C-alpha cells in the first residue's frame, strides 16, 4: 500500500447536506462518514438522490448547504487540482467518439501531473502501466478503448482513477451496463481496492450487490437517508419494500444471505424522476 493511501485518517465527512433544485428539496439532511478502507454502497431507486449526492461531493454542484470535508478540509475551499489529488470519479462505461488506446485513456486521468501543452513523460507512462497492472489489464495497454467489452472498459476506468493517485474513489453505478460475469469481476476489484486502503463510494440499484460486497450501506429515498450502517443490519425486507416496492425474503447460504422476491404482487415504489 502506498504512503498516500496509508495517510488517510478521516477521508470523507458529509454533515447536514441539503440541496434544492428548482424549488424542490433534492437532498435533505444527508450525513455520512467514510474512513480509510471503507466500501460504502449508496442504494436506492431512481430519483433517490444518489447522483445528486455524488455531484455535491465532487463539487460539481456547489450551491448546497451543510458541510462536505475531505481530509478535514472544506471541499469548497479546495482548488480543482487539490480536489483531483483527493477524489477520483469513475463514471458508467461510455463509448468514446475517438479511438484512444487504453494507455492514453489512463493517462488522461493524470492531467494534473502533466504541464499544459506537454506530453506525458516516462514517469507518467510508468505510473499508468502500474495502475493497469494493479487491475490486471496491462496486456490491453495498446488496444483501442472503444473496442473493449463493457467490463474491460470499466476496469480501465478504474485503473485511470488509480493512476490519478487520489485517495477517494466515487463510482456511479459501475456495473449497471455489465453482464453478470463482468459485474462480479468489477466488484471484486473494487473490494480489493478498499482492502488496500482506498475509500470507495459506489452507487447501485442492486441490494444483493450491497449485501455481498459493502462494508456500509447508505439507503436513500426521495433525497433522504432511510438507513445507514452494515448491510446485514440495514438491508431488511422492510427497507427493500420501502425502497423498491417489492416483497422479499432472505435465504441463508454458506456464501451469505440471498435476497429472493416473494409473491406476485408489487407495491408502488417510492421515488421520482432522474437519479
Can you tell me about this structure?
There is one protein chain. This protein has 275 residues and is of the alpha/beta class. The protein contains 10 helices and 12 strands. It has a 6-stranded mixed sheet with strand order 6-7-8-3-9-10, with helices on both faces. It has a 4-stranded antiparallel sheet with strand order 2-1-4-5, covered by helices on one side. It has a two-stranded antiparallel ribbon with strand order 11-12. Strand 4 and strand 5 form a beta hairpin. The chain is globular, with a radius of gyration of 19 Å. The two termini are 34 Å apart.
Secondary structure elements and pairings:
Blueprint: H1 3-6, E1 12-21, E2 24-34, E3 39-43, H2 50-57, E4 65-70, E5 73-74, H3 80-86, E6 87-90, H4 102-108, H5 122-135, H6 150-163, E7 168-172, H7 180-195, E8 199-204, H8 207-213, E9 216-221, E10 224-229, H9 231-234, H10 237-244, E11 248-253, E12 256-261
Parallel strand pairs: 3-8, 3-9, 6-7, 7-8
Antiparallel strand pairs: 1-2, 1-4, 4-5, 9-10, 11-12
Helix pairs in contact: 4-6, 5-6, 6-7
